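Cast an eye over my tokenised protein here and flag anything odd:

===
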Amino acid sequence: MSKRADAIVATLVAAPGARLGNDCVAAARAACPQPQSAIWLERDLALDLFFAAPLDEIGGLAAAIEAALGGRGVDAILQPSAHRRKALLVADMDSTAIAEECLDELAKTRGCGAEVAALTLRAMRGEMDFAAALETRAALFAGVEVGAVLALAARMTPSPGARTLVATMRAQGAYTALVSGGFTLFARPIAAKIGFDAVFANELEVEAGRLTGRVRPPIQGAPEKAGILARLRDARGLAPEAVLAVGDGANDLDMLAAAGLGVAYKAKPIVAALAQARLAHADLTALLFAQGFAQESFVQR
């Protein structure tokens, strides 16, 4: 018996400075089933390619398109064409909503940058227990003044497209949440800078205006991040298909799996391999193109 073919959309998005030229489009189309139709979301930057295929073949088709586009600086996000507009965005913070890893940056000011960066990398690759890595890193910051942490948080850089992604989705009625395995001292001002509706993160213990080096339980790791997504979704009466999640580390995998569209953004290898969709080249506005927004409808920030 033949499999049921569903309506699929492959959204092709070029990296900043790259071009989605005719050669890219032809290569992607050759990797997809026929017949097809195409709609430009922004000429030479983003294109929707529509066709029919069994849902369980999306992963293989995505891999085939990525191979066909190899070296061209173009990403492809494949998903069912129904329900592609999302009503809830849940985003990781470090190396996703912002360009930096906050604890790594704080460690540089304490002379332990290499040690902390190594722990961060192991945790994000899934090579080390997340809670243990977080507590080990936090202990190195005992005695740091809260004011110094807040000053550093103010210097963190929103990832390209993050503000526009959040502003556009909010303008369309979506709810947006920053859900971080990091700390509220960083996450609250960063969420406000980018424009998220809500923020969830771990709490560093503070005494007399200084960090104690301890983390207040419970620690928000992978299961907790997915749980927050589920609570936000259920509180709004949404189906999983209405949720978009994006992250880069191993502690994001449960959250990405719980979303209708879970996207690995410039992610660690284990995350890129397991996520439904991957962005290796384009900025975060690609997540608006993936929802079918034309660039002219973006709320620029």
